[in-house]
């Protein structure tokens, strides 16, 4: 899985190398760029968007807020915690 990093907030998502759409940040909707790093699928957690049907990966414990490809909001994962930044 190819790693993409948000240029604004640094959130990471992972997409299949076959995926050619440019993702938007699931948290802040900033543009994302490839970092050149990769991770194995088993190290990641898969999310599927119920709106557009596309899949993407995040690290375990990360909670995306929006779909990277459309406007769907993941209602199971409201971002109410603010205190986790270093
Ligand atoms: Zn972001
Ligand atoms: Zn979607």
Structure description:
By secondary structure, the protein is mainly β. It has one domain (1-86). The protein contains no helices and five strands. It has strands at 2-6, 12-15, 32-38, 44-48, 55-59. Strands 2-1-3 form a three-stranded antiparallel beta sheet, with no helix packed on it. Strand 4 (44-48) and strand 5 form a beta hairpin. The chain is globular, with a radius of gyration of 12 Å. The termini are far apart. The model has no long low-confidence stretch (mean pLDDT 89).
Structural descriptors:
three-stranded antiparallel beta sheet; two-stranded antiparallel sheet; binds zinc ion
Taken as a percent bin, the fraction of beta residues is 25-35%
Largest sheet: 3 strands, antiparallel
Overall number of structural domains: 1
SSE ordering: EEEEE
Counting DSSP H or I runs of 4 or more residues, the number of helices is 0
How many strand units? 5
